[in-house]
Amino acid sequence: MLTKDEIEFLRTQGLTAADVYDGRIQTSAGWKAGVRASGKTVVLGSPCTSKGHRLRTRSGHCAQCDTAKLGYQRRHNTAGYIYIAGSRSAKLIKVGTCVDIDQRVRNLKNQAYGNTSDWVMLFTAHVDAGGKTESDVLASSVDEIQSRPDVLQRRKTAGSGRDAEDIVFSGTGGDARIPEGCQCL
User: For the chain, is the Cβ count within 10 Å smaller at the N or the C terminus?
Assistant: First the structure.
């Protein structure tokens, strides 16, 4: 079923053949439902147009051409903390997810994220699906996302093979809905 190259690729991503759903004889809608229902991570499907790879993410992207898609998928469904951080000097609010709250606030300050180093955690909550919760909060809480080149960035997390995408926004009003169970720090 899988080639040696595909098995090696899976190994580099911390996956095995047991994480692969065989969707080769199904329609796109069929294997998308099947892979989610089975709890598998990757789909063996039709070759991608770029390089002919057959391993795809649950949403249909070529997992081998862009491994960041697997990182996003993993983060989307991983337990952790959602946080809302604020910078008074830059008048910015940042919604994100992380595993370690104390380390994240240190990183925001030390990296002068958004060209500011006065970040403080305003709210945190432990959630089962960090990326999904982050997406839901951003979709329901923000009237306008102002993308600033110095703030909106995609960077490779060293050694992990995953992309971390952070969005910082400054709102134009509206009432932010904070998920139940959050703590004011």
Answer: N
